[in-house]
Design goal:
about 55% helix, about 120 residues, mainly alpha, about 0% strand
């Protein structure tokens, strides 16, 4: 049919079950639920939102530990804050440090070539 935009290679694939809308199961599954969690709790601080994602992922793991053990291994607000601060400082430094095309180099101001001979002197 010329009006069909997409066509399956094998039509028997869609007879038994519904085909997924995307080829990436994480986007419709885990990532969508994490985005919804963050959207519903957008009033929380960054540290608490990061901790909420940690907790969600851990509690939805196949074999989560008992609560007593989880509290030992999960990051604290202070440790998350420390990591976040160091990442933020690194990002600020990377914005300050000149990269290719951001700064003037010696070669931009001087026409110097090691291979050429200075005939005019």
């Amino acid at each position: 049919n010329t009006e069909t935009m997409f066509r399956y290679l094998d039509e028997t694939l869609v007879l038994d079950k519904e085909c997924p809308r995307t080829n990436n199961p994480i986007e419709g599954g885990v990532n969508a639920q994490l985005r919804r969690l963050l959207r519903y709790h957008r009033g929380m601080s960054v540290e608490k939102r990061i901790k909420a994602v940690f907790w969600w992922c851990y509690l939805h793991s196949p074999r989560p530990l008992p609560a007593k053990e989880i509290l030992k291994v999960m990051p604290t607000d202070a440790s998350i804050s420390k990591i976040y601060r160091s990442m933020n400082e690194r990002a600020q430094l990377q914005g300050i440090i000149p990269t290719w095309g951001d700064a003037i180099s010696w070669g931009d101001l001087h026409n110097y070539d090691k291979l050429s001979f200075n005939d005019w002197d």
